[in-house]
Amino acid sequence: MRWLSALMLTATTSLADPPQIVAVTAAQTGDTWQFDVTIAHPDTGWDHYADGWRVLDMDGRQLGMRILAHPHVNEQPFTRSLTGVAIPEGTRQVQIQARDLPGGWNAQTTVVELE
Length: 115
Known about the structure:
Blueprint (H helix, E strand, L loop, with lengths): L1 H15 L3 E10 L2 E9 L8 E8 L5 E6 L10 E8 L7 E9 L2 E2 L4 E4 L2
Antiparallel strand pairs: 1-2, 2-5, 3-4, 3-6, 6-7, 6-8
Keywords: Signal
């Protein structure tokens, strides 16, 4: 019975872990930007995986979103790109926010300086 309690605690802990943004690069290409975002998350399969990330302005308005179409159980951390993100003129910083199933958007964001 003890092993069952320990197993349940471990499962609850891993389900509570939000996706973490490990690295971000941003590059301007003409009038738009490309973002390469590296995420670490304890994906376990289709019921629990990092399923997206988005670019927000500093007021929380969404500027772009990358949907992650499948779990990355055996690829951690992993990097995915989003191109064609229009950034309003004069913007010097944006935020990156990651999401998982079933937890939703991570409350923590990563601020990126645009150069």
